[in-house]
Amino acid sequence: MSTAPLFPSAARAAFTPPPSRLPGVGTTIFTVMSALATETGAVNLGQGFPDFDCDPRLTSAVTEAMQAGHNQYPPMPGIPLLRQRIAEKIGALYGRHYDWNREVTITAGATQGLLTAILCCVHPGDEVIVFEPCYDSYRPAIELAGGRVVPVCLRAPDYRIPFDALAAALSPRTRMVIVNTPHNPTGTIWHDDDMRQLARVLDGTDVVVLSDEVYEHMVYDGQLHASVARYPELAMRSFVVSSFGKTYHVTGWKVGYVAAPASLMDEFRKVHQFNVFTVNTPMQHALASYMADPAPWRDLPAFYQRKRDLFRSGLADSRFRLLPADGTYFQCVDYSAISALPENEFAMWLTREIGVAAIPVSAFYSTPQDAGIVRFCFAKQDATLQQALQRLAAL
Ligand code: PMP
Ligand code: GLN
User: What is the 4 CA–ligand 2 centroid distance (Å)?
Assistant: First the structure.
């Protein structure tokens, strides 16, 4: 057999990787700030995740599921009991009946649910409206589908939805609008009136709504979560996305779900089955048995409201100006009385010099914005919050 090379050596050595599908994307701000917090030993109020553990009943349920032999592929859309419990819960909370078998799918976190919903609907050249600041996965997901992001800007301090601007942004090419309530990063929530206005603006169009509701159980001061599932005229055109990671303090499990009418869910599953196909089995069994008890999600608003109040009262007399925080586990603050640094630099300085990591809100916009606002995550043990507050309140 000849050992002569197939190609001349110069040709063999050279390899040009394909052009990037996401040329504008680098490492996410969450990863960057968490790494900096670890490196500097700062209290990490940047990336959104709890620094306390989940209920031990939940981890025991995973072990039990594994020991009971639930270790092979589950059905493609998820195990029936988990989907049944989700459909029952949505029905009880928001009054919309989803057929658990056809209209609910378990996903590998909300992130995969969002990406899959976008990939199954958005065609090259389609426009997708996002409200900025917005969660960082929306834009790349739209771009991977070949879609065009159309941002509608929300403004501090109250970040209300500008429905006139939304109506003006709609075009014959609009395929989708992405809604996120409670809202990351601002902590604002949509109200009944906002949902009704959205329904009015979209009436007579075929625009799909992708509703990111991962913080559905973090709504404070007795307010109601305005799920699109409550509004028939929106629910008929919507994917509703949620995440067990947020609700049960298990962000590392990456299990979430999507509910949508069958016409949308049929298309969703076509993409889902070739994207992850299924989501890990023992976690699904554990979550299904844990969901039998409503207390963990029912008690969540009170649990986080107390932490929000502790954090806010610790900063009340400081030079940080607190923005409203009606939902999520994030608190945004205006630091313009403390520093004139741009947000990115301020967040780095705060981490390195003061020992508290934060996220610059400018990271959630596609075009540079510098309003002097950073986001803190208060999903932390009280001792962690106290330690951060001591450092922040002195500024
Ligand atoms: N949407 C929003 C608004 C989020 O804050 C998060 C949390 N990172 C996600 C989606 C993703 O959730 P998951 O970790 O379940 O993928
Ligand atoms: N959702 C989390 C946040 O906003 C982070 C998730 C991630 O790191 N991608 O902080």
Answer: 52
Ligand nearest to the CA of 254: 1
Give residue 227's Cα distance to chain centre: 15
Question: Do 280 and 304 share a domain, yes or no?
Answer: no
Does some domain include residue 14? no
Written as six digits, the tokens of 305 are: 């409201």
Whether 137 is in a domain gets the answer yes
Task: Let me know if residue 283 belongs to a domain.
Answer: yes
> Is there a single domain that holds both residue 275 and residue 304?
no
Q: Which ligand 2 atom is at minimum distance from the Cα of 30?
A: 8
Domain of 363: which CATH number?
Answer: 3.90.1150.10
Token pair in block for residue 323: 């923005």
Distance from the alpha carbon of residue 111 to the mean position of ligand 1, in angstroms: 6
Query: Which ligand number lies closest to the CA of residue 214?
Result: 1
Residues 246 and 363 in one domain: no
- Given 293, 309, 336, the domain boundary residue is 293
173-225 residue pLDDT tens: 999 999 999 999 999 999 999 999 999 999 999 999 999 999 999 999 999 99
Q: What is the domain count for the chain?
A: 2
Residue among 173, 125, 133, 129 at smallest CA distance from 153: 133
pLDDT confidence bin for 368, thresholds 50/70/90: confident
For residues 274 and 366, membership in a common domain is answered with no
Output the six-digit token pair for 342: 């741009």
Residue 228 gets which letter from DSSP?
G
Q: Which atom of ligand 2 is the closest one to the Cα of 214?
A: 1
Going from the Cα of 242 to the center of ligand 1, the distance in angstroms, rounded, reads 8
Mutate to test the pocket of ligand 2, among 38, 45, 47, 114 (most ligand atoms within 8 A of CB): 47
Flag whether 375 is in a domain: yes
How much distance in Å is there from the Cα of 243 to the middle of ligand 1?
A: 7
* Ligand 1 contacts CB of residue 130 (under 6 A): no
Pair 316, 282 in one domain = no
User: In the chain, which ranges are E strands?
Assistant: 43-44, 104-107, 127-132, 148-153, 174-180, 208-212, 238-243, 256-259, 321-322, 330-334, 356-357, 359-360, 373-377
Ligand located closest to 243 CA: 1
Kindly state whether residues 99 and 179 are assigned to the same domain.
yes
